[in-house]
Amino acid sequence: MGIAFIDLQAQRARIADKVDAAIARVLEHGRFIMGPEVSEFEEKMSAFSGARHSISCANGTEALALPLMAWELRTKDAVFCPSFTFTATAEVVPWLGASPVFVDIDPETYNMDPASLEAAIEEVKAKGELNPKAVIAVDLFGQPADYPAIKAVCEKHGLKLISDSAQGFGCTIDGKHPIEWADVVTTSFFPAKPLGCYGDGGAIQTNDQEVADLLDSLRIHGKASQADMDAAGYSGHEAKYLNPRIGMNSRLDTIQAAILLEKIAIFAEEIELREKVARRYNAGLEGHVLQVPFVKEGYQSVWAQYTIEVENREAVQKKLSEQGIPSAVYYPVPMHEQAPYRRFPKAPGGLPVTEAKKKTVVSLPMHPYLDEDTQDRVIEAVKTAV
Ligand SMILES: *Cc1c(COP(=O)(O)O)cnc(C)c1O
């Protein structure tokens, strides 16, 4: 049997009956757009991470764009983000005409380096061409970014903080979710993410009522909120035909919400199962590879990826593949080296850690249902390959 990099069928085998019944219920009631499962799931999400508001949307990319729209980002505004991340983190910034500014990462966690962030903000301020507005920190591979330090930098400079938790939904620092620090937390329900649906999906969390109302409006074509209706004295008509702002169409399908309701019910347990796999991998691989994942004291990763560092990565991957072990590289070309992003500013001194790590990182099979025999096969194969 081939080994799966992420085995979604193993999870499906566990909850297939419930998921099929949930989908059947939606087919029956027929409210495919903003049906009752959508708000039910949003409430479950809020309860899960202690956020006051959860606003679902079409995918994790638009989850990042919507708060930037709510804050009215414009040309000449700067948004600081890592380069060592999935494209979407930076992609949404030029959508609004604003400029990403790329920041280096910590060599142990691969997450945003607060010192590089601080230096980048100082330099942008000194140059005076762009206005620093926001920071997007990423919970790469599932580990929370250093929110206490990043939040302090944001407060010092008066910047908004987004947690791009597409890979990290459920992660914590001393038991607290990123919403404890971030103005807005975004996530993705792309099938391969730790909490994934069976298609595209995403969500935004915030504790700020005003921002939540704006996000709810923006995701549905800038439809009127109750406050907008009252202010306009516009009663007796549907809110969606009064549009006080320019929004977009970014809704979570009811069917996906119904699936997610079943998945979030077992999510906490799945995080524990992933943690067990990671610990066992660590024990088997420590000392045999350049670096096994380092998780900071008090930090809980949700292990979207289990990523090690090796020399001669290509040869190692080839040997793994010959033994039926899939592997993947996140990310071979960091954002600041991709053609459309090269023109955007970088932290002073460039991004030496990002540029070093892109050559050595490789991710191994990881999911909650990876049994011990399969883990041992992966561990042995890696040991031989290196
Ligand atoms: C997957 C991902 C996204 C985008 O999510 P989609 O749902 O695919 O749009 C954004 N940021 C990070 C870090 C991701 O890994």
From TrEMBL:
**Which keywords accompany this UniProt record?**
Aminotransferase, Pyridoxal phosphate, Transferase
Query: What SUPFAM superfamilies is this protein classified in?
Result: PLP-dependent transferases
Q: Name one Pfam family in it.
A: DegT_DnrJ_EryC1
What is a single molecular function from GO for this protein? transaminase activity
The UniProt record lists the keyword Transferase: yes
Family from the record: Belongs to the DegT/DnrJ/EryC1 family.
Q: What is this protein called?
A: DegT/DnrJ/EryC1/StrS family aminotransferase
Source organism (scientific name) = Parvularcula lutaonensis
